[in-house]
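Hi there, hope your week has been kind to you so far. No rush at all, and the record is pasted right below.
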Amino acid sequence: MSVGPDRALLTVDVPGGPDVRAKLTQAVPRVLRSAFERCGLDRVWHRRRALPGVGDGFALGFHTRFLPDLVDPVLPALGDELDYRDDINVDPAPLRLHVSLDVGPPDPRTARRPPDERLFAPTVRLAAVLSARVVEIVRVSERLPGFGDAAYLWTPPGNPGARSRESTDPR
């Protein structure tokens, strides 16, 4: 299903080996829905469009007017939801998520890009890579290498596994 050229594109992946991903990936839609509900944006969740072609991850399209909300309050609410699920031991292993947020026409070939190695630290529960176009609209903190023009890293406050620091593109 095409979502048109002007969409906020949210992709989510569960890091880890195939066994871990197989057990935890099924929980991702519930976790995402709960995060949207947690911050009072269930109406935005119900307006999402699923995008094809991202393997075992999830790609969703939203109207661009919701882009600032996807960064804040949705990303912090997603972190809170992960903490809650960990506190009540609902998942077979701690759920960690890699999120990518971009703006533009959906393109399955570029929806999931290789994440920065700092996202693989065991202490990183949630980290989001935001494209330069997203940053033009919503202020965030860190440029990441290897993402063409620029990409930025967003982590919840107090996330010990990924500190904010300026990086340069190695290409």
Observations:
- The helical segments are 18-24, 28-38, 42-45, 67-87, 108-111, 132-137.
- The CA atoms of residues 58 and 88 lie 24 Å apart.
- The radius of gyration is 15 Å.
- Confidence is low (pLDDT under 50) at residues 111-115, 141-145, 160-171.
